């Protein structure tokens, strides 16, 4: 959607789309988070076409009026005029049947950036190209989970010279400030060492038994054995 709005805003008769680009994207996220049903999401989404014309009362009973408070605009020229070519072209972009079906199925859950951070951390401790035994890889997975859980919500730095600016290509010239987090901690390591010396060293048998109870998958057969097995079946 953002790419379509960006292309549309480049046309000479659709300059107003640039002013509303970010607001339309924010409205899409708001529809996903604040609605209980798919029909309500679609109704709220369509209300943006009235809102950009300075119309805040809607005919759809699922969303009869905008929720923001009434205020006087400082820029009356930002509103779209009814029947203009720019409004018609924008309406075609926002209300295609395919896109409305997607709006109806929008997920209210957060984006997966935190999950991607965990996967990135996991690939550093247990890379896919490293040949590791099952128990060894499982232990690395547990260590990664402990490291991530301890540092996922660590506080942010407040640098004296301000936050560094980023210029990602997807922002089309936008420059958000990057909030830098404090250095990660490793207190879980001290807890593990304390556990080893206070419990495991003195009585290792319960921990050995717990490891033996792990359901370890069977090793894959060697290539020659697999070929021989196929030959016997024929």
TrEMBL record:
Q: Give the originating organism.
A: Nothobranchius korthausae
Instruction: Region Disordered: list its residue ranges.
Output: 152-178
Name assigned to this protein:
Si:dkeyp-30e7.2
């Amino acid at each position: 959607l953002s790419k379509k709005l960006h292309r549309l805003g480049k046309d000479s008769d659709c300059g107003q789309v640039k002013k509303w680009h970010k607001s339309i994207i924010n409205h899409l996220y708001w529809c996903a988070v604040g609605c209980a049903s798919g029909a309500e999401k679609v109704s709220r989404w369509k209300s943006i076409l009235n809102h950009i014309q300075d119309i805040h009362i809607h005919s759809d009973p699922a969303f009869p009026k905008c929720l923001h408070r009434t205020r006087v605009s400082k820029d009356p020229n930002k509103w779209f005029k009814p029947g203009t070519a720019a409004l018609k072209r924008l309406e075609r972009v926002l209300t295609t049947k395919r896109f409305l079906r997607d709006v109806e199925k929008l997920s209210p859950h957060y984006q997966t950036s935190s999950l991607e951070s965990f996967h990135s951390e996991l690939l550093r401790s247990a890379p896919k190209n490293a040949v590791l035994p099952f128990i060894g890889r499982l232990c690395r997975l547990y260590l990664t989970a402990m490291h991530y859980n301890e540092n996922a919500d660590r506080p942010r730095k407040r640098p004296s010279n301000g936050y560094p600016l980023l210029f990602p290509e997807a922002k089309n010239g936008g420059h958000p400030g990057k909030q830098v987090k404090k250095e990660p901690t490793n207190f879980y390591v001290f807890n593990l060492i304390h556990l080893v010396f206070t419990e495991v060293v003195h009585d290792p048998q319960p921990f050995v038994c717990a490891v033996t109870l792990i359901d370890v998958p069977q090793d894959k057969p060697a290539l020659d054995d697999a070929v021989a097995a196929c030959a016997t079946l024929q």
